[in-house]
Amino acid sequence: MISEAPPQRVAPLALISVVLAVSSAAICVLTTLLAAFVNAQLAIIAAFLPILGIGAAVTGWLALRRIAASSGALSGRPLALLGLFVGLLTAVLQGSFVIGAMINFSAMRVHLVPSMETFFEAAEVRDVNKIRTLLSTDAGSISDERILAFASAVQSEQGQVASVDFSVGTMIRGRQKLMDLAGQTSGNPPADRPHPVEIHGRTMTLAWVFLDQDAVNAASVRINDLLILGDSGTALTLREDGPAAQLATYFGLNTAP
After folding, report:
1. pTM score, two decimals?
2. Number of folded domains in the chain?
3. How many CB atoms lie within 10 A of CB 158?
4. Rounded Cα gap, residues 180 and 102, in angstroms
5. How far apart are CA 52 and CA 163, in angstroms?
6. What is residue 228's three-state secondary structure?
7. What pLDDT digit, counting tens, does each position of 216-245 carry?
């Protein structure tokens, strides 16, 4: 009587690899959608997604080794290969995104925070000429009177600005605040995308800086406009009719000065 060979079973690690790979890709898409339309704080999840891809690749490789050494007892080679390659692909793509975002964030922080602190220091002593050295070409048409009125409004609202912060938390809070404000409006928002900063004066308040993109590409900071969120739905804008005022109007905020 010929003995039957034991039936093959799928290698558990091959199944785990596929599950991790598919989860990595699916969670990446889901996180992007939720962060864009529901809650910006969910974007922080993206920093941990490469772990799933790496896990899929490692377990897929281990599954292939165990299948090869099982003398036919284990199956699941296609699943292991799928998990290995999809895991590697998602890990590389997600890792590149995270590293690129960190590099851009670090470069922006190095230039943006000192420039904004210099801006508010000059505004406090009403040094219009110093402020103009920080402005873009588009913002160069602002009158001295407008700059002084803005400086007075900031001092009245916040007193002395002690520091300016630009962090991952700032970006998330700034994005979430814009989403909250946008939820109360209709229509299409202005195309210009500002950078959020936190101003520490009498209180901590959010502000959004519109930068000259050509200067940013050249690793420099030139302020095109500035919106500071004030009390009672008021927005302090540097330019009377610039992108900050357009954004404030879109959100239904009263502008000053």
Report:
1. 0.74
2. 2
3. 21
4. 25
5. 38
6. strand
7. 877 788 999 999 988 777 899 999 989 999
